[in-house]
C-alpha cells in the first residue's frame, strides 16, 4: 500500500497538538513544527527520511526519549481504515484497538492514514556533543563505564553511543574501531557539563566540545548534516543507503570487558570492500522506564540499561551473503550478554531472521516465536485485538499479528 502522497501535517500551537498523515517523513514533521514554533518539538528517530506510518506504530525511539518516552507514547488519536473500508478514529475503534496500533505495528490491524500527537515543550536552546574515541584512546574502558551510568543520568540527558568499524571521519582515513559518544541535553551547556563531570568524568568532556543550538538544528546535527545547512534538507526524501541488514537486542546487565573485546574482534573481521558496520547503543531510564510494560504494546521498559541496533551496510549486491552471515555471527555471539526468555527485539528494527511465513498466513505458534520477542507479554492481547478487528486476516505480511482461529 503506497502512502507516499498522504503527507499533510496540521499543527495547532495553542493546543500543542498535530495531525500527521502516515506518508509524511520525520524530516517533514520536524520542519513543519519548527516552522510554527521554537518552543515545541516532537520525539522521534534521527533519520529524516523515515516514514511516519511505520515508525509511530512500532515505537519510535529518539534523542529525547529519556525525557519524553517514544513517539508512540505521545500519540493521542489516529484514523484507521478497517478491513470493511470504514474510517475509524479512537472513539469509534475503541480503546483495545487504539492500544494495539500504538506499538503493535499498524499494518496488522488496518490502514492507518493519520496520527494525532501531542507536541512537547522544549527550551529555545538544547546542547549537543559528539566525542569520538579509538581503542588507543581508552574506548573499551569508556564503553564499559558508560553502561553503568547511561540509564541513571539526568532525564534531560540522552547519552547515545555508536561503535563503528569505519574510516574517520567517514572517508580518507585509516579504518579502525571508533566509539562515538553522541549526546543531546534538553538544556544549557553549563548544566550539561556539571552532570557529565559528576557522572562520567572519564570522557573528559569540555565546554569547547559542546554546542548550544535550537532543537531543530539538533535534528540536522544528529542526521550528520554540516553546521549551517539549510532546514530545507529535511524535506528531501532521497535515501541512498544501498544494502543493509539490521538486528536488535536489549541489555540488562553491563557487558564485561572480555565481552566488549569480543565485539571489537568481530568488527575487525568485516573486511569486504565498501562494507561498514555499526552498533548503536541507545540508553534507557527516565520516562522510558517509568511507563508500565502493558501500557502500550511496546514493552521494553524498566530493567533495560540500553537497546542495541546492529547494522551492516554494503555497496555491491554480490557481497550480500557474506555481510548477512557476518551480522548473524555477531548476533549469535551476543546471546550470552543480552535479555533472555525471551531474547527481546525492537519491532521497528524488523528482523525476518526471527521467524516468518512468506505468505503472511502465519499460525499463532509460528507468530509467537517472534511475537514474544517484539511484544513480550503483550503478544496474546494483540492476537485478541486482531481477531476482533480483522478476523479474516485481510491485513497481513511476513510478521503480522495472526487472528485466533476458532
From TrEMBL:
Highest taxon of the lineage: Eukaryota
Which Pfam families does the entry link to? BBE, FAD_binding_4
Claim: Hydrolase is one of the keywords in the record: no
Under InterPro entries, the record lists: BBE (IPR012951), FAD-bd_PCMH (IPR016166), FAD-bd_PCMH-like_sf (IPR036318), FAD-bd_PCMH_sub2 (IPR016169), Oxid_FAD_bind_N (IPR006094)
Q: Which UniProt keywords apply?
A: Alkaloid metabolism, FAD, Flavoprotein, Glycoprotein, Signal
GO terms for MF:
FAD binding; oxidoreductase activity
Where the record annotates domain FAD-binding PCMH-type, the positions are: 1-122
Q: Read off the SUPFAM superfamilies from this record.
A: FAD-binding/transporter-associated domain-like
Record's function text: Involved in the biosynthesis of pyridine alkaloid natural products, leading mainly to the production of anabasine, anatabine, nicotine and nornicotine, effective deterrents against herbivores with antiparasitic and pesticide properties (neurotoxins); nornicotine serves as the precursor in the synthesis of the carcinogen compound N'-nitrosonornicotine (NNN). Catalyzes a late oxidation step subsequent to the pyridine ring condensation reaction in the biosynthesis of alkaloids.
Q: Which family does it belong to?
A: Belongs to the oxygen-dependent FAD-linked oxidoreductase family.
Its recorded name reads: FAD-binding PCMH-type domain-containing protein
Amino acid at each position: 500500500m503506497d502512502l507516499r502522497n498522504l503527507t499533510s501535517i496540521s499543527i495547532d500551537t495553542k493546543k500543542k497538538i498535530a495531525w500527521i498523515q502516515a506518508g509524511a517523513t520525520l524530516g517533514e514533521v520536524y520542519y513543519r513544527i519548527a516552522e510554527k514554533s521554537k518552543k515545541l518539538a516532537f520525539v522521534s528517530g534521527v533519520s529524516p527520511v523515515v516514514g511516519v506510518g511505520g515508525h509511530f506504530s512500532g515505537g519510535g525511539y529518539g534523542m529525547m526519549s529519556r525525557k519524553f518516552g517514544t513517539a508512540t507514547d505521545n500519540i493521542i488519536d489516529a484514523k484507521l481504515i478497517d478491513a470493511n473500508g470504514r474510517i475509524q478514529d479512537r472513539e469509534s475503534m475503541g480503546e483495545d484497538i487504539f492500544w494495539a496500533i500504538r506499538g503493535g505495528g499498524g499494518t496488522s490491524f488496518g490502514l492507518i492514514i493519520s496520527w494525532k500527537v501531542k507536541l512537547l515543550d522544549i527550551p529555545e536552546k538544547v546542547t549537543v556533543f559528539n566525542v569520538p574515541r579509538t581503542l588507543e584512546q581508552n574506548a573499551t574502558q569508556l564503553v564499559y563505564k558508560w553502561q553503568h551510568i547511561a540509564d541513571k543520568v539526568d532525564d534531560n540527558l540522552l547519552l547515545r553511543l555508536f561503535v563503528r568499524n569505519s574510516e574517520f571521519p567517514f572517508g580518507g582515513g585509516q579504518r579502525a574501531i571508533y566509539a562515538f559518544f553522541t549526546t543531546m541535553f534538553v538544556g544549557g551547556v553549563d548544566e550539561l557539563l556539571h552532570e557529565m563531570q559528576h557522572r562520567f568524568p572519564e570522557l573528559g568532556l569540555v565546554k569547547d566540545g559542546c554546542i548550544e543550538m535550537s532543537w531543530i538544528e539538533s535534528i540536522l546535527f544528529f542526521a550528520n548534516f554540516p553546521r549551517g545547512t539549510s532546514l530545507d534538507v529535511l524535506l528531501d526524501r532521497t535515501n541512498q543507503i544501498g544494502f543493509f541488514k539490521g538486528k536488535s537486542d536489549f541489555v540488562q546487565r553491563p557487558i564485561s570487558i572480555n565481552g566488549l573485546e569480543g565485539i571489537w574482534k568481530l568488527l575487525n573481521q568485516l573486511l569486504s570492500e565498501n562494507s561498514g558496520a555499526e552498533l548503536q547503543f541507545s540508553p534507557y531510564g527516565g520516562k522510558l522506564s517509568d511507563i508500565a510494560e502493558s501500557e502500550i504494546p511496546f514493552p521494553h521498559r524498566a530493567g533495560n540499561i540500553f537497546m542495541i541496533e546492529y547494522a551492516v551496510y554494503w555497496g555491491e549486491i554480490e557481497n550480500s551473503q557474506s555481510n548477512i552471515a557476518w551480522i548473524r555471527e555477531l548476533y549469535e555471539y551476543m546471546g550470552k550478554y543480552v535479555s533472555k526468555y525471551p531474547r527481546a527485539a525492537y519491532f521497528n528494527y524488523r528482523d525476518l531472521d526471527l521467524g516468518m511465513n512468506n505468505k503472511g498466513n502465519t499460525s499463532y505458534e509460528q507468530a509467537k516465536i517472534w511475537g514474544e520477542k517484539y511484544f513480550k507479554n503483550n503478544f496474546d492481547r494483540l492476537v485478541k485485538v486482531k481477531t476482533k478487528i480483522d478476523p479474516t486476516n485481510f491485513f497481513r505480511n511476513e510478521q503480522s499479528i495472526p487472528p485466533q482461529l476458532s
